[in-house]
Amino acid sequence: MPKEIDSTIFHTYDAERAGNTCSCGKHASQTAHDDEQQRKADVQAQARSQDAEQLSNDVVEESVMRALFPQAAQRRDFLRAVGVNTARAAIASMFPMGALQAMAQEKNGAIEKKDLKIGFIAITCAAPLIMADPLGFYKKQGLNVSLNKTAGWALIRDKMINKEHDASHFLSPMPLAMSMGVGSNPVQMRIATIQNINGQAITLHVKHKDKRDPKQWKGFKLAVPFEYSMHNFLLRYYLAENGIDPDRDVQIRVTPPPEMVANLRAGNIDGFLGPDPFNQRAVYDEIGFIHILTKEIWDGHPCCAFGMSEDFVKQNPNTFAALFRAVLTAAAMARDPANRSLVAKVISPAAYLNQPETVVEQVLTGRYADGLGNVKNVPGRADFDPVPWDSMAVWILSQMKRWGYVKGEVDYKGIAERVLLLTDAKKYMKELGQPVPDGAYRKYKIMGKEFDPAKADAYVNSFAIKRTT
Known about the structure:
This is CmpA/NrtA family ABC transporter substrate-binding protein. The protein is α/β, with parallel strands linked by helices.
């Protein structure tokens, strides 16, 4: 017996809900705001038991409606004029919904392994690989995926090494470190896609509102989610550029993301450079304030990745291709700002992020409270560009060398190209009709300083604060 679906989840055909506006962008009054929060809580509870295929179909219909009527006022006028049933029929007559919803079911080659376990940490960085589950993108590729919520990054690493997970959400530096045998036994890993760019922040306890200058942070205890993380390397970079030695002037502690807010509340740490939704959750709980978005340190920086072992790729080429297509499809949907509220709705429930939807939506839309009394609008606060640029890996390796995680000569180009599957990413993006960029190595500007991947050692040696000699 199919599960009963709540037809109000996306409000595609609700004329009164098709684009409300108010002082905060959504509501006309505080009463309306409170009513909406309760409704969202009810919707989340219902969404946990939804049928994935129906939810996916709802998203297709929602996307078509938005494409036909980009303006909220147009959608409202159309729905009021013709009614729900006529609207459905009219759209179905112009767009073969069944065909659209079935297109992704075409498969190239027999799937070697249909039942897969994929590990993830409950953060917004993982939005593409998470949303691919409730929206049915894995199923449409012939895959039966079990998403395994995992407590911390060390466990993610160990479960991949022990082959308890077939593929995984990673911090971008992790597959590089694992392949090199840094911090663990060497196991060759591959990065299929970057899961997200930007989307992190430095959050401080509210008691430090008078310490906005990092030069005042000597003696601070600051948390990052893992040693081999962009969070660690970006925090170190930011501190050093402000004259603070990250190994001598402050303490940097590894703390699992779900525990960051609790540790901030307890006074165990003064702040953290961590993933969302926990920066925004600290603001929501009135415990912390957002000091700076990592977008302001390096706009377009990679954060998390989606990957698997080299053995898995070789043994399951068709399964690998199906996974690639599912996650790229999700990333393309997540990239569209028009879909961000829908994505927040899909990934917020207990089975995934287990966070208030309003917190997740603030992160994904970029309209957020900063904890200092301001409401900011930064549309690029988080993005989901999937391209695994080889130059991103070279920058990560340069920081591993800068801070003494690796010693001696580093084969930057060789390691980057052995771990990142850029060619495959471009191939499957082209198959899916997605824009495919040229090249493999890009220059970046990080806090005003240029990084040229062809001159990585010179870049490392140019810093005054470093552990290399």
